[in-house]
Amino acid sequence: MAKSHNQKIKILILAEILKSTDVHKVVTMQEILDRIGQHGISAERKSIYDDMEALRDFGYDIQYKRGRTGGYYLNSRPAGETGSSEMPPDTAPEGGTGSEETPGQETAAWRLSRKEICDPDRNMKLLCTQAREREIREYFGEMAEYKVKTEGYLTVTVPRIQGPEFFGWLTVMGKDVRIVKPRKTAAAYRDYLKILAREYKGV
């Protein structure tokens, strides 16, 4: 098959794979690549991320569940499609009570994941002051893992994020939130701050 035709088939296969998932039945990136490969189509992770973005634009609510048993799942389908896997309104996400997260908090977290998570399979670690814990939890929601490190501090582990929206939020947090790893992301944030500083040079 021609390469362009393969790419069209690939996104259809991905959509079918995701239709069989929900918050309790996720699929990993490797499983996606393996199942697409069974159709004789080779794919890279980046192309799968691009296809997921295209499906999201079409109306597929694709989310990522963290943890040892984490992976991708379809939370809801485009309007008009039957067999939606959307969770009932009164059903709390796994590991939550249903009362701690508000719709606005969940939207903020997943808006971030769609736009700026550059590698959801690799972690980024932040060191934060507990004084900012409430704001941090509101920003990341269930996307993150939280752990008290020492008195007055906690570590927050999230998928690797990089971009102006996330960096802008970090700037607001000031010294209360610091990127511990990866160093590559910390360096990118440093360069972002340098660009901002240059705008005010000579003031």
Order of helices and strands: HHHEEHEHEEHEH
Distance between the termini: 60 Å
Number of helices: 7
Percent of residues in helices = 40-55%
Give a structural overview:
- By secondary structure, the chain is of the alpha+beta class.
- Helices cover 44% and strands 21% of the residues.
- It is built from seven helices and six strands.
- It has helices at 3-19, 29-37, 45-58, 103-116, 133-140, 164-173, 183-199; strands at residues 61-65, 71-76, 117-129, 145-148, 153-161, 177-181.
- The strands form two sheets. The chain has a four-stranded antiparallel β-sheet with strand order 4-5-3-6. Strands 1-2 form a two-stranded antiparallel sheet.
- A hairpin with a 4-residue loop joins strand 4 (145-148) and strand 5.
- Helix 1 crosses helix 3.
- The longest helix is centred in the first third of the chain and has 17 residues, at 3-19.
- The radius of gyration is 19 Å and the shape is globular.
- Mean pLDDT is 77; it is low at 83-107.
Helices and strands, with pairings:
Layout: H1 3-19, H2 29-37, H3 45-58, E1 61-65, E2 71-76, H4 103-116, E3 117-129, H5 133-140, E4 145-148, E5 153-161, H6 164-173, E6 177-181, H7 183-199
The gist of it:
This protein has 7 helices and 6 strands, in the order αααββαβαββαβα.
Features:
two-stranded antiparallel sheet, 21% strand, alpha+beta, 203 residues, 44% helix, 7 helices, 6 strands, four-stranded antiparallel β-sheet
